[in-house]
Amino acid sequence: MGKIDITKVWTLNYRLVVSVIGEVAPALHELGIEVKELFLLAELDAHPHPAALAETLCMPKPSVTVYVKRLEAAELVKREIDNADLRRHKLSLTSEGRKVMTGGLALLAEAFGQRLAHLTATQQAELKSLLEKLS
User: Fold this and answer.
1) Average pLDDT, stretch 82-95?
2) Which residue of 39, 81, 89, 135 shows the fewest CB atoms closer than 10 Å?
3) Which residues of 32-71 are buried (b: 16+ CB within 10 A; e: fewer)?
């Protein structure tokens, strides 16, 4: 087997991600959120502080601030002073925010699942394992 073209692998991966995101973006818009806002909502329980969200999502802190303000105005996210450190804000999902997040993740899972269906169960498990190694 010859040397693998890393650029080609990257390009294929990028096309897959863009394809899935492009497919779900209109439905997410109907839910009232953008794709990046879905990712933010999905990480909020594990990373309730804006700085941690920015680091986890590899986003600039000012971008996270803009998204949080928008999600807060839409009543999908609630901001409170963190009792453990009164200098920081702690974010949480509202019940509507959790509903939107769950619906958005279901749309993403369906679109990606359609692509994964081209692989056998063994290939899917291998892909998952490989992606975990790369992450």
Assistant:
1) 88
2) 135
3) ebbbbbbbbbbebeebbebebbbeebebeeeebeebbebb
Residue length of the chain:
135
Structural domain boundaries of the chain? 6-134
CA distance 38 to 106: 11
Looking at the domain that runs over 6-134, which CATH code has it been given?
1.10.10.10
Q: By C-alpha distance, which of 46, 45, 26, 50 is closest to 104?
A: 26
Averaged pLDDT for residues 2-30 = 94
Measured distance CA(71)–CA(40) in Å, rounded: 10
Residue 1 has what pLDDT?
61
| Residues near 84 by beta carbon (within 8 Å), at least 6 away in sequence | none
